[in-house]
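G.,

No rush on this.
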Amino acid sequence: ERADCVTHNIERSSMLILIVAAIEGQDVAMADVAGAFLKVDMDVFVLMKLEGGTVDIMCELDPSLKDFICLDNGKRVLYMQLIKALYWCVQSALLWYKLLSTTLVGMGFQLNPYHLCIGNAIINGKQCTITWYFDNDIITHVDPNVVTSIIDKIEEKFGKIAVTRGNSHEFLGMKINFQEDKTVTILMEGYIK
């Protein structure tokens, strides 16, 4: 239930940001930080149990791991300590959030007290907004050069990111199209699937 609430808040806030961007004719970029969680060190001791074909794959990548294979109820297993955050670990999402939000605050953004995945900064007298859902970001500002500079700063910290610019985007399975009449259409078919 809590996850649904968080997801609905992200959807609503993202849609509101997109509507404002359309009305104000802002430049919009959608960005995806590839391997975001792997950019964060795990801050607690976490063991991961690998079984079946995954054990073979890991040993193929690093033959020295063969010495550490154990039998558990007759199955070959390999226990590994996570040193980097891994998708689907609850701790990983929090660690990534802390790293990204700290980075944005360091860039001059203030987090919205009502929605902590939205940051705003006044740049060249106009509001720049960034909202994110895990590693997927929406960045808006009236000046495309400001949006580009924000993307550049994020890439300085996290490496090359996938970015779309222009009037057509995909975000979390939603197809977003900015229209000439200062409106935006959002098709949800992919999101629903």
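When you get to it, here's the other one too:
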Amino acid sequence: EQVKEINSAAYMFEHLKSGAKLLFLENDDENKVFSISFRTTPSDSTGVAHILEHSVLCGSRKFPLKEPFVELVKGSLNTFLNAMTFPDKTMYPIASMNDKDFRNLMEVYLDAVFYPNIYQNKYLLKQEGWHYSLDENDRLIYKGVVYNEMKGVYSSPESVLEQASMEALFPDTTYGFESGGHPDNIPELTQEAFERFHATYYHPSNSYLYLYG
């Protein structure tokens, strides 16, 4: 269909074998956009969706680097490069005005989400999620990228109130949980549950792809 408001031709595609869906907005905008998203509905507040969002960008089958995302930020011509966890979905959007760079970014992101190193490198959950550590007084504490991030989030009274409201309003649904991870619950996440979440949700049949430009 022609979408006059953005001067684009909209195409909807569906991959017959897997059921993957693609929305393509064709126009003459030089800033090309790609995104792959997955429905990721948590059943607890361990932050598995958020930790997975971080972890899949820490090396994959074709790009076995420690942090391909960091290298892309350094050398890519991207105009946008990120990943986001929502209460019920996870998105991986990129944009670039350079065609070769755009295709390269797309390949890195697709390999990351479908073939991440999380199954081979058990340290990724510990690094991005949580692990034990000793403080300066040799007391056992929790650390981890997402754990520390969410401790910061929950230092805000507004965040505590918002999550309490969601739990009260939607107690029997996925929206009653904290998809980003609650500091009290993040250390409950196991490697088995981590891998199972990826195997369940990161599949073409559960993906929504978007192309623009």
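DSSP finds seven helices and ten strands in the chain. Residues 99-114 form the longest helix (16 residues).

Enjoy the weekend,
O.
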